[in-house]
């Protein structure tokens, strides 16, 4: 009897050791690869993960499509990429980046904090094509602003017929661009700024995070501008296959990511401040309200089509109206 118990205890301890020692491979997208701020955050996360019984191996990618393809092919147990691309694995978290849904970094921080709250554990788990996925973390990339070659393109009426490089995997972008009667040009993160800088397109939307790495200044230096009106928020999602990680790993990981949000938003603010003031143009208040109404109509339509998660849409509205109590939409229904 004692011998049997001894054998069982040895086997149990070996099982625990195997759990601790099992390696998890994580593909991490960052425009700057290993040198990027995002990758550095995941390095800190990987160190912390050892205390959660995981052994993380990070693989940097500067090509987001390749990171996703390798994840889908099973070469990675997890992937960190933009939420727009990650929406296919979890619509709730992916909908934080709904068109016009986040109007400031303050609103973004409230929305991400809510999404990662333990009360949303069920919503952060999803099954797609018989594969289970879990959102184990969210960080802010930044608000995306409109950049133009010609600063005189300062109304949507003047932009009609102009070419806009949109990210082809986000159907919402194409819907909005088409509704504004612009010419939508399907693009990747790896080439949309190249098209802008080489005059293949007239307009792009990008966060400050992309300004230096992708050399956006080359496209606006001769009479161009950045309009300080956020059209979309861009976050990054850490998507894991939960069966590849220790029990309760996702919960612990999300708790850690919440503690990193102040640092994440400080980085965004620093990068936004580094864009020269001479390129920044503010739209008249009446135009901002008009564009917010257009984006709101688009969001409502896309939610009805199943692109966006309706619960997240109500969360975003609550966050916006908590920060901007006098906004026209706060007395309206529909979201």
**In total, how many domains does the architecture comprise?**
2
* Principal-axis shape: globular
CATH class of the largest domain: Alpha Beta
Question: Number of DSSP strands?
Answer: 10
Q: How does the major sheet shape up?
A: 8 strands, mixed
Radius of gyration: 21 Å
Mean pLDDT: 91
Helix content: 40-55%
> Which second-level CATH architecture of the largest domain applies?
3-Layer(aba) Sandwich
Count of helix runs: 13
CATH superfamily of the largest domain: Bacterial extracellular solute-binding protein, family 7
Signal peptide: 1-22
Keywords: Signal
Organism: Acinetobacter venetianus (strain ATCC 31012 / DSM 23050 / BCRC 14357 / CCUG 45561 / CIP 110063 / KCTC 2702 / LMG 19082 / RAG-1)
Protein name: RND transporter
Q: Would you summarize the structure shown here?
A:
The chain is an alpha/beta fold and 335 residues long.
Molecular structure report:
This protein has 2 domains: 17-141 and 234-273, Bacterial extracellular solute-binding protein, family 7 (D-Maltodextrin-Binding Protein, domain 2, 3-Layer(aba) Sandwich), CATH 3.40.190; 144-232 and 278-331, D-Maltodextrin-Binding Protein, domain 2 (3-Layer(aba) Sandwich). Helix content is 43%, strand content 22%. It has helices at 2-21, 37-49, 64-72, 83-86, 91-94, 105-115, 156-159, 171-179, 192-197, 217-220, 249-274, 285-304, 310-323; strands at residues 23-29, 55-61, 78-82, 125-128, 131-148, 163-167, 183-187, 203-207, 225-240, 280-281. The strands form 2 sheets. Strands 1, 2, 3, 4, 5, 8, 9 and 10 form an 8-stranded mixed sheet that branches. Helix 2 packs antiparallel against helix 11 (249-274), helix 6 (105-115) runs antiparallel to helix 11 (249-274) and helix 6 (105-115) crosses helix 13. It is globular, with a radius of gyration of 21 Å.
